[in-house]
Amino acid sequence: MIYGAMKFSLGGSLKLAFRPWVEGIENIPAEGPAILASNHLSFSDSFFLPAVLDRKVTFIAKSEYFTSPGVKGKLTAAFFKGVGQLPVDRSGGRGAGEAAIKSGIEVLERGELFGIYPEGTRSPDGRLYRGKPGGLARVALATGAPVIPVAMIDTEKVQPPGKIVPKMIRPGIRIGKPLDFTRYQGMEGDRFILRSVTDEVMYEIMKLSGQEYVDIYATAAKRQIAEAAKAEAKQQAEAEQARKAAAE
Length: 248
What we know:
Layout: H1 2-18, E1 21-23, E2 34-38, H2 45-51, E3 57-62, H3 64-67, H4 70-82, E4 85-88, H5 94-109, E5 113-116, E6 128-129, H6 135-143, E7 147-153, H7 155-158, E8 172-175, H8 191-209, E9 213-214, H9 218-247
Parallel strand pairs: 1-8, 2-5, 2-7, 3-4, 3-5, 6-9
Antiparallel strand pairs: 7-8
Helix pairs in contact: 1-2, 5-6
């Protein structure tokens, strides 16, 4: 009930304001479980994709969105529950990953759609990064649910990281044909199979999105970018100190 009301109000507003274009919506099954595996460019990805679909999509969200104190925290928690987000504590390493996998399996066992970002985090620069083999592949092999690759287009331009007010840019969504991995069921303990399944999905996402593919994890790329920015700031500070010393 809450989801339907939130979808009607938020989804309708998003479609009216941004007019997202969609290709391949016929690849979403009318009923039954399926995994929507998408690239991740923006915080708004989890809202634009459900907005264009008739069916409910459940994503995993940081538990902090559900546990913040005060009135604002309660409103935020109600909002994320209303749009079909599930809280998972991602600070606990392997335990957090297991909780996310368990939640995904439960969603699919109810015959619903489960949304997941194989990269594990938002792209820091708009490129497509290596998919993490744990969550997506294990959920797919444990349930036998088809995996539907999804490409979000230009959502990072609508709401760049760190920006609160969105830009009125028309984003797009490309939905690929379902991928069947039932031939690997019962093999979710084989890391080579998990890697193979994940890479196949990422390849399909790359074809749909047209993004440049980078064969490292996005988390590693973010660390490299942060370290490079820190080194550049240090060089600039040292150059400024040298300039001041020379002027004295």
